[in-house]
Amino acid sequence: MEVYVKGRLTPILFFLLLFLVLPYHLNATTSPSDSDSSPGLMTRVVSVATEESKSGTTVNVLGNGKIPDYINHTLDFPLRIVFDFCNAADWFKPKIIFVESPNLKRIRLGYHKEKIRLVLDVKGTDIPVYTAMSANNRLTIFVESAEIVDTPEIQKKEDTVRKQEPEHKGKSNEISGSQPDSGIGTLEELLRIEPDDGQDDTALFFKNVDAYKAQNWSGAVEGLTHLIKTYPNGRYAERASFLLAKSYEHLYSGSLSAHFRELKRQYQDAIGRFPDSVYVPEALLAMGDLCYKAGNYYEAVAYYNLIGKNYKDSAAALPALMHKARVLGLKKKSGEALSILRFVVAHYPGTPEETEAKIKISKTLYEINDFRKSLSILSELRAANSENIYRYPQISLYLGNNYYQLGDSVKARENLYRFYNSCPDEEMNHLVLTKIADTYRDEGLLGNATKIYQLVLTRYPEKEGALISLIRLAEEQEEGQLKIERGIASLTVPIGREIEAPAEIYEDVLNTILNKDEKNPLAQLALLRIAILYHRNKDYEKSLETFKRLLKNYPLTKLREETKDALSKTLEDMLNKEMKGARYTNIINIYYRERELFLLVDSPDPFLTIARACAKLNLASFATEMFARADSLLSDEEKPADLLFCMGRDEFRKEKLNRALSRLNLLTEHFPHDKNAPHAYQLKGRIFVKQKKYVPAVQMFSTALGYDLKACDRAKILADKASALAASKRKEEALNATKEADRLKDNCYIAYCYIYKEIGDLYLDLGSAKEALAAFNGALDVEKKEENKILLNLKIAQCYRLLNQKKNCLSVYNQIASLNEPFWSNLARENIEEINFESEFKKITRNPPPPPALPITEPDSAAIKQLITTWQQAWQQKDLPRYMACYSDDFYSRGLTRTRWERYRAKINGRYKNIQVSLSNLTVELLSSTKALTSFDQDYRADQYHDWGKKTMRLIKKDGTWKIQRETWLRAAEEKKG
Fold first, then answer.
1. What is the pairing mode between strands 915-926 and 896-897?
2. Which of 394, 413, 481, 717 has its CA 20 to 30 A from that of 797?
3. CA 63 from chain center: how many Å?
């Protein structure tokens, strides 16, 4: 990943930063040899030390001998800078040096049979600019810090510098805007012939200059080497040393990679001997260019930076800037490259470099897709001087490219033709002609396009343009629009043979590319076209395999968006084929088999198809998951009814009522006649019930009932409506709706047997115990789950109790109590005791005891009321210790001792999340000085459980504190909603 400079650095600030790029340590080559250096080559590293500065990290490596030749390269994953010292080494264990640096994580040292390896593990997201210089037994590596981003504070500093500029214009820290002194340090100066003084060294130097001018590179190398050896401190030694380095560069120009280290060493030796020479800037520029040609881009930038820092007025300064911009552009650091090029434009007006910088700016803008700005700069260059388009043919080239990207095929073609005619031998013309053909193709002029594609195939059969032309022709053949009298063929078949099938052409192109360059983008295009072709032929399996091959081999492909789009269409058609055949299981299997491909899909259609298949198979949660994937890819106006209903229902279940209501409103508004519309109204009604908005809830249920519904669906909605009516105190209407639902409930035997219990609850709520009993018995006949059967039996017992059928009621409770279910059996026993207590209480009421109640004192009254309040609060808060502290040690109720009562209440607390107890009509009667009787109306709610009735407690006073000794409970009604 490249790091881009954000913000625009103005010229002066930019070069103030550049001035800090490299520390003085990097001139290590120029330092005299250390006194402790060993005469032989290094076989082990003695020490590695680091120094930090604002501009970066310096790593000093000390060897036990002279630093040998080394190779350095970088790794992007993980980020590393690697140095390999190529000579036999002593064997030592690998070593890790941990450093405190903002640029480096650590340094690792390893010894191998034929080399010593030094590795710098880099922090951040990109390889920083770095350079390395060796002298005798020392190697100095400098790792540059990330460039500073422009900020208001920096701008303020820059303004201050600008104010000082007039006074110190000649002493600027950066490259001056004036013309550089081209007479110092140039090749002409190196080759300058002075008057012959008859001396031997003069004659020898003149002879070598003549050899250089005659391009006799080997003769120049041999003669200059002899001159330097003969006269090491002579008057021509300096010029001879730098000329020797240039001669070597010419000698090995055809084999740069093989002699890179030797060429670099020649320049280093010249700089090391003459560090103050006027030829040093040109030598550094040559070293930077060598590194650039060898692909060592970061090292190249470091040399260009050295020139900018130390030789700002030299002839090499401007080329160094231009070359640095070239490297940064190549490394996709467009922001930094543009900053440098704009500086050149601002400070070197009227020079050829200004025009070249503008052309490069336009090229960079084109590469970052800023076509209009690029076009504007090029148009200005053309308008400024009509000769520019002939002097700089690239202007026409990039004018054409920009017009093409902006969709103006005519102007694009005009400029591309001008470039082609101006530079008929240009190496890139195969691509230029192909783009010209593309402009014809875009305009529908397929005949003209085809002729040029064929021309490219004939004239440039081995070039990339030929491959693109083949692909274009194959695409037209796919569409059935290709009309060529002579026909087209693959690269290996001459023009005029029978036309090949598109798939064969794509495979041929692919194989041709892969044999040359696996990373060529055209290989990706060929694979994409093959995948699309298989899709068109409805061979979906082969299409998917080709997509997998493309994504596996080119995970960072620039065709990713086109690939995702084509992949989505293939998967969509593949799933639709299975959907039409009602092969829903196949759809699910395809999804699980190709899950990695589905992760790339950003089209909603495949996920909608999968969701609908899941719905057909009653896989509700899976359907919801797929609808959710599609939901994120659609606007509200695009969402289909089944998606809105499914997502609304899911959010209703998750208690996200407002979001659910929003979904359902969209459904009923946009799809009022959809099959899901009545169910959406039903869900909206249930949401209003939860919000206790009973009037709009009834309206929603009534609207749902206005649709043509199945009997069971109608029964369900009627039951919901009856519940809302009952909650709004419209008892008669609620009872009518319940009775209508009751008549329809038999249609729900299989689909929705729970309606039986729901209708029974409604009847019970409305005081119709007889009808409730019938409904609960009907539910018991169809219920399968044992726990639900127990609950229904409790409801049946309650109906018997309300109908005063004590015998039947006790029979059902005894049956439940005998099951030994921890919760239900205890509940049944509690009810049995209540019934028995109720009978005893009635007897007492018929024959009241003669003694009158004693008057209660104010302290006792207040203490008893406080006891009841504490008991109520502890029960609601499920604070069991505080709750049990209200009971006496000899407490007994419902067949339970105090200990068993505590266990029973612990289970109740664990069963319910929330408990609410409301008390009213509290009365207190003092039976004696230590005994009292209290009673009150109790309303108990726990989650979805609700009962209310009369509670009576017998209290006892011990040690001055009132406690509960007995308690009884007479239930008025009970409701438990599932």
1. unpaired
2. 717
3. 46
Rounded-to-integer distance, Cα 831 and Cα 809, Å: 10
Query: What is the CA 98 to chain-centroid distance, rounded?
Result: 32
For residue 52, the surrounding DSSP H or E stretch is: strand 45-53
pLDDT score, position 165: 36
Residue 444's pLDDT is: 87
Q: In angstroms, how far is the first alpha carbon of the chain from the final one?
A: 57
Share of the chain residues as helix, strand and coil, in percent rounded to the nearest 5: 60, 15, 30
Cβ burial, residue 713 (10 Å; 0-12/13-18/19+): buried
Helix (H) or strand (E) holding 19: helix 11-19
Q: What is the 3-state secondary structure (H, E, C) of 672-716?
A: CCCCCHHHHHHHHHHHHHHCCCHHHHHHHHHHHHCCCCCHHHHHH
122 and 105 in contact (C-beta within 8 Å)? yes
Tell me which residues of the chain have a pLDDT lower than 50.
1-38, 147-184, 484-499, 751, 973-978
560: closest CA among 515, 602, 516, 610?
Answer: 602
Whose structure tokens read 């290996």? 492
CB 265 within 8 A of CB 69: yes
Q: Is 210 exposed, middle or buried (0-12, 13-18, 19+ CB in 10 A)?
A: middle
Token pair listed for 30: 């120029």
881-887: which pairs have CB atoms within 8 A and are 24 or more residues apart? 886/963, 886/964, 887/963, 887/964, 887/965
Packing angle of the helix pair 657-670, 641-653 (nearest 10 deg): 160
Name beta bridge partners: 66: 41
Q: List residues bridging with 415 in a β-sheet.
A: none
Q: In degrees rounded to 5, what are phi and psi of residue 182?
A: -75, -5
Structure tokens at 889: 């040690």
Q: How many CB atoms lie within 10 A of CB 810?
A: 19
pLDDT, tens digit, 9 for 90 and up, residues 452-492: 988 888 888 777 787 788 778 777 776 665 554 444 444 43
DSSP per position, 514-541: HHH-TT-HHHHHHHHHHHHHHHHTT-HH
Res 166: pLDDT: 37
Cα gap 726→763, rounded to integer Å: 10
**Residue 288, CB-side half-sphere exposure with 13 Å CA sphere:** 29
Q: How many helices (DSSP H) and strands (DSSP E) are in the chain?
A: 41, 15
Q: In b/e form, how buried is each residue of 833-855, taking b as 16+ CB within 10 angstroms?
A: bbbebbeeeeeeeeeeeeeeeee
* DSSP-assigned letters across all residues of 733-768: HHHHHHHHHHHHGGGGTTT-THHHHHHHHHHHHTT-
Long-range contacts at 13-16 (CB < 8 A, ≥ 24 apart): 13/150, 13/154, 13/155, 13/157, 13/158, 13/161, 14/174, 14/339, 14/340, 14/343, 15/172, 15/173, 15/174, 15/175, 15/308, 15/312, 15/343, 16/158, 16/161, 16/173, 16/174
From the CB of residue 88, how many other CB atoms can be counted at a distance below 10 Å? Answer: 12
| Dihedrals phi, psi of 249, to nearest 5 degrees | -60, -40
* Residue 40: partners with Cβ closer than 8 Å, 6 or more residues away: 65, 66
pLDDT tens for 791-809 read 889 889 989 988 889 889 9
**Token pair in block for residue 725:** 């009516």
Q: Is the pTM of this model over 0.90?
A: no
- 751 and 708 Cβ atoms separated by less than 8 Å: no
Angle between helices 464-479 and 502-516 (to 10 degrees): 160
Residue found by looking up tokens 């009150």 in the block: 936
What are the tokens at 146? 């990330």
Single out the residue of 949, 950, 619, 944 nearest to residue 757, CA to CA: 944
**In what order do the strands lie in the sheet containing 70-76?**
70-76, 79-85, 116-122, 104-111, 95-98
pLDDT at 744: 87
Show the tokens assigned to 193: 């012939």
